Amino acid sequence: METIRNRPAETAVKGRNRARHLPSRRQLAGLFFVLPAVTFTLLFFIIPLLMTIWMSLHDWPLIGTPSFIGSGNYDTLAADRQFWTSLGFTIRYTLLVTPPIFILAFVLALLVNLPLRGVGLFRTAYFIPVVIGLGASSLLWVWLLNDRVGPFNTILRQVNLLQGSLVWLGSFDTALFAIIVSVVWKTVGFTMVLLLTGMQAIPQEIYQAAMVDGASYLGRLRHITLPLLRPTIALALVLSVIGSFLAFDQFYIMTRGGPRNQTITVVYWIFNNSFTYFKMGYGAALSLVLMGFLVILSMLQLRLLHREISY
Amino acid sequence: MKRLSRHARVVAVLAILLATLALSLPSSAQEPVTIAFWSRDSAAALVQSLADAWNASHDNQIEVTLIPAAEYITKLGTAIAAGEPPDLLAIDLIYVPQFAAAGQLTEISELAAGLPFFDTLSPSHIRLATYEDGLYALPFNAEASVLLYNKDLFRQAGLDPEQPPTNWQEIYDAAVAISALGEDIDGFYFSGACAGCNAFTFLPLIWASGGDVLNEDATEATLTDPMVKAALEFYHQMWTEGLMPETALVDAGAEFLSAFFSGKIGMMGSGAFSISTLKNEHPEIDFGITFLPGKEGGVSSFAGGDSIGIPAGSKYPEEAFEFIEWVLSDEVQLEMFARTASLPVRTDLAENKYFEEDPRLTTNAQAMALGRTPYSLVYNQLFNDSNGPWLAMIQQAVFDGQIDEAIAYAQQQFTEIMAQVQD
Question: What's the pTM?
Answer without folding.
Answer: 0.80
